[in-house]
Structure formats: C-alpha cells, structure tokens
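Repro:
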Amino acid sequence: MNNSNSIAAAPSRDSLQRRTARLFGQWGVFLRGFIEHPKMVGSIIPSSRFTIDKMLAPVDWPNCQLFVEYGPGVGTFCLPVLDRLPADGAMIAIDTNPLYVDFLNQHIHDPRFTAVLGSAEHVERIVRDHGHERADYIVSGLPFSTLPEGVGPAIMAATHRILRPGGAFMAYQFTAAVRDLMAREFDDIESDYEFWNVLPCKLFWGWKDGAES
C-alpha cells in the first residue's frame, strides 16, 4: 500500500470544513457543531433578531472599545455587534470548537474582528494577548447549566475581573441557572424575557460597579 497516496487522498480537516461551509452554509456548520459538542452549544437553532436586538440594547456603543463574545457559533451576534461597534472598536469571539472559529475567520472580513480558539475561562489572557487591558461588554450564549463542574464559576470570576468598571456581562439562556453564578460576582443584575425566539429565552445583564476595586 502506498502511504503517500492514501495520505493525499484523505481530505484535510480544513478542506472538509470548507466543503461543509459551501454545501450547507451557516446552518449546516451550526448543526454540525451542535451534533459534535451538544453540551457546549446552547441551542440547535441560532438566536432570533428579537433576542439579539434586546440583548444588545443597553450597550453604550459610542464608548465601546472592546466587545467580547463567548460561544459565538457561526456568528449570529457577531455581525450585529460589528454593525454597531465604533470604527476604532474591536471584537473578540472566543469558542472551543475549531469548526466555528475557522468558519468565522473565513467569513467575517472586518479588521476589527478576531475569532479565537480557546476557553472563556482564559478571557483575561486572550484579551491582553490581543493588546487590550479591559473589555467593555461580554455577551454569552454558553449553556452554563451543562458546563463541567467548576467551569461556570471560573468563567464568571474571570469575566468580572476583565470587565471595566461600568461594563456588563450579558447572557441569554433557556434556564435561570446563570443568574446564581452571576450573583457571585455582580451586585447589579437586570433580567428580561424574549418570547420571539426558538425556544423563548431569558436575558440577563450583570453590571460591574463603576468604581475601581
């Protein structure tokens, strides 16, 4: 058997991902990511525009220099954020699935945007590795109720530390489990509900105290 031929015949991961994107588009990539890592994807269906608009409504966009997203998937929130972000702002999207990270970096052509393969637990290092001291806002659709033990609290603690005073952590979820995690770090938590989503979801905003600790 000719090993070189067999290696050449085997499609690389990158080419397989490109073919997946071409054949099935955004929905196909999203579905594949859900099938491969169901506990790390909050929903089998991307969030509705109603959820996106309501979640992002409290952001002070003119003063937003760095916006971070945990678990961006195929970018349902990314383009709406970039549409609102100032010209000198930046967005970092962090995901543990290389399929999503590759898809985003190949399909979002905006110099303000970077998709990073990594865990939200390491948001402080990721933010600083990209030349920033603080994040202004962080949005997350991670399913906190199904994350491995200890991961949720670690993410929340790191999130609070990296946010600037007056900034906010924003989460859209199908359960209220994340509120208890947020309450460990944030004193000021607001909530709402969006019916026009599949499934209807709960929205939370945790505001960091405006004074430096």
